[in-house]
Specification:
The complex is a heterodimer of chains A (290) and B (346). In chain A, 33% of the residues lie in helices and 33% in strands. Chain A is α/β, with parallel strands linked by helices. Chain A starts with a strand and ends with a helix. Chain B folds into two domains: 245 residues, no CATH class; 94 residues, no CATH class. The chains are: A alpha/beta (290), B mainly alpha (346). Chains A and B meet through strand 6 and helix 3 of A and helix 1, helix 4 and helix 5 of B.
Chain lengths: 290, 346
Amino acid sequence: MGIAIQTKDLGKRYGSFWALENCDIIVPEGSVSALVGPNGAGKSTLLKLLIGLSTASSGQSQVLGKQPRQHGDFLADIGYLAQEIPLYKSLNAADHIAMGKHLNERWDEEFIRKRLEDLKIPLDRPVGKLSGGQRAQVALALALAKKPKLLLLDEPVAALDPLARHDFLSSLAQAVAEGGLTVVMSSHLLADLERVSDHVIVLAAGKTQLCDDVESVLKSHKLLVGPREHAKNLGDGISVIHETHTAKQSTFLVRTGKGAKLTAHWQRHEPNIEEIILAYMGQAKEGEAQ
Amino acid sequence: MNWFLWRQHRKQFLVFGILLALFAALLIPTGIQYWHTYQQALTNCAQHPAVYSCDDLTDTLFTSQADGFVRIAVVLGTFGLPILVGLFIGSPLLAKEYEEGTNKLAWTQTISRRKWLTTKLAWALGFALLYGILLTILVTWWSNTINTIALNRFVQGHFETQGLMPVAYSVFFTAIGFTTGAWFRKTLLALAITFAVFVVCMVSFANWIRPLYMTPVTVTAPMGPNDLGGKIPTGAWVLRRDIVDKNGKTLNGDIFFVAPPECQQIIQQADVRGNGHGGIRVKAVPSPNGGDPIDDCLNKAGFHQIAKYQPSYRYWEFQEIESGIYLGMTAVAVATTYWLVLKRDA
């Protein structure tokens, strides 16, 4: 499988503040990646760098084999949905479809018309008067009608109610099922991402904490519970992501490398992806506090 | 891209079209009517010189209250429409896209940011240019009668509303509108700054910059009511008229206090007789040679009058210089906009 996105030491600085620092990620072609992290972790910054809306302060990135830039050659294969789901409020959906047709060389008119019809979204009403869910659907349909190879979505469901969120994610899943599409979607709603993604990127405090496919992440992480007196002695080939202690008991979330050996004191549990992600975010937070 | 720009801005273009049509509805009938009235007055005074005078048409024609309103409307419209184009076509052009985030939608279609920007700017500037041209054709045509009577197109309020200037303003303030919009990314702020730039430009060009384009012609005359006026050609733009003493120092305030004692005495006598209060243009006892004794005395003491003016034949040179300056500033604004949009992040 090829690589859709690869970044190396990618960074973005605003004044003296690094919104994103030393970001290394690899996104395989055909994957649906969840880009997660707390607010201000640099998720939007990363996506803007990948689509070329921002220019990097350091490092490189390759997106579909090209360096991001503001040019049709680069933009043709990528769909992007900004966080605030921008649309021209006074124009209706039909105008937006016509805009897409005029501004893109590849454009699937039939697809978008059918899709909006299926979703019962009126084409003749100004999009400013549509519901938030309908606007998100229009914006997603516009991005998909480009027939992109890569879709970058910046918190597309954050502002939607649960039903609209469900519809949106179904639409997305349907588009992915049709094949040939790589998706990177940011959110802080972990449960939603778990439903659609097979790859996870955790950003926290402007740095990459984790970037791997969900299956190997699950395989390589363990939750260890045991007596506190043995907390210093976990075993070999293990790195602690997060730990909590009560008076007698300690809980560790650890990443286990190849040939890792655990000492006998510890009960092992399989954490779910949400627990693992939270552990990484917690780790970054503690690192920041120190 | 062109289709989309038309779709996006057609309402604005339509509103401006209606405004221009309303303005034309005022100017075309009054323009025709003014010309006829003037021709009629010329015929009348030529046929009946005893009843009508051909010399004081400036004072007698178009002096009614209604004419006053028409003139104010013309000046307001010709100043107002170009700045309105700047405020409502220029300012929101980029600011609104930034404000609503739609620039991110446009910039992620299959089109380069440069091409998108070039198309937007070309539409805005093209519209401003066309609008300015139509406006100036209308107003310059309308002003023909007034120009013929008043012979002065130089003064503030006339210079700016005719010839090349409405075009220059329309284009420049549109450019300032989108430059401030790209800079601050807030429509309201861009609007406010564009308007502030307009006020500063209007005031500073008329008062401080425009007089400097060419060295003014200087004339001097002895003290006396009509001596200086006769030396200034009709239609000239008079920049200053002063009284200077024998050392060439410009007089500020009342001449009484700097006049020699013998002149002060004559002025005082004149004040008593004429109930004047220190002014110099009071009636005095005629001097033996028939002149004003105060003027005679002041002339003897070395006082004289001086005037600086721009002759009327320089009008078009001034128009070219000033619109050239605006064109240059427009080029700077456009270059700045390219830099702001292409080099900064979305």
